[in-house]
């Protein structure tokens, strides 16, 4: 498989991943992004934003912790125009979102809240092809954007309207007068969705107000949410200007304070997920994306002939496999391969009709290949791009049969199916070749069976299921049982 960013997750992290994947798949997940999400892009935090202004009013930014009051002091001494200019200049540079922005934009989450002034969240979502409804001022709540894929609530305003950005004590004092709709909407989302707070310090008085109101209303029944906390590490306390004893004292103090803060957040149902380094957040998000994609099953196959099966046996196998995947709530992705695609559709459609499933689009993504050359690009190049796009949206690929008719009338292995296997490896899509169906599927099964630890997680039950799929004369039911077993194991492996 292609090289991946991996880490050994703690039990707490693994439980969070499992739970948050479920929330995303159910459409109940939301993101609350703070300044830490944009920091890797070079945007300043509060301290960086106010450093020069603090100097102007005779304060040392390094000695200050109440930045809200500092901003207010500056406005009291001068006026707000310079703060507005700072917001425009510091956040105007157009940059692409970092890897965490990019992963979040691909997870299918449709609700984003942020206190950031930059546009990285909405721009990254748009780059991913999403239609985004950005709400910056209260008037935006009255508009309706058709076919939107995501809503971004900019709780503290936006760099393009710095005079309305929430930054000073006055802004916070009048927040529920000027921006009450944001508080109301956030309260509703906190009650109905599971939030992941990322890059957030929990020092925002507006959020404290909303959380406290929810706690009062629900008492001990507040919903569960999640956030990341970096563990206090003794190795970071080595200030050469301090004694060893003083460094250790600072370490113990900060450790105690962090534990108290984590315990306090539990009052609001916010559970801290501990990480050793901020890069662990990226690794956790990558794992979440992998799990999300593994609900999408790409079926690769082409069949001029169904040997070693009879036509009826092969069609029954593919139909039943497609039906079972739909029944297990997996989404099937197919390129409408020769002799395979229409049967895959029939299987998923059969499940829909038998179960009164509302929407076939939730069960099946069908991408028929263009068959006629047009334009300047070679048709084979178009097919390769097409395959890359389809497969990149999947997490697991099933390979069946894989043959075509040569110009001389003979049956040969399908090079398109071989290419799809290589694309799967490039995109870290896990292959499940059903070797018993012969042709390319048998070639691929021989490959993975000889290198099980390369292609799959270290799981004996999973490896045994893959081995079964290459046996000659395996029954249709056993093919389906072992395929579904392998897919189910991979959801949490």
Automatic annotation (TrEMBL):
Similarity remark: Belongs to the soluble Thoeris ThsA family.
Species for this entry: Chitinophaga eiseniae
Domain Deacetylase sirtuin-type: residue ranges: 10-295
EC annotation from Swiss-Prot or TrEMBL: 3.2.2.5
One biological process term in Gene Ontology: defense response to virus
CDD domains registered for this protein in UniProt: SIR2-like
InterPro entries: DHS-like_NAD/FAD-binding_dom, Ssirtuin_cat_dom, ThsA_STALD
Annotated keywords: Antiviral defense, Hydrolase, NAD
Gene Ontology MF terms: NAD+ nucleosidase activity
Name this protein carries in UniProt: NAD(+) hydrolase ThsA
Catalysed reactions listed for this entry: NAD(+) + H2O = ADP-D-ribose + nicotinamide + H(+)
Pfam families, alphabetized: SIR2_2, STALD
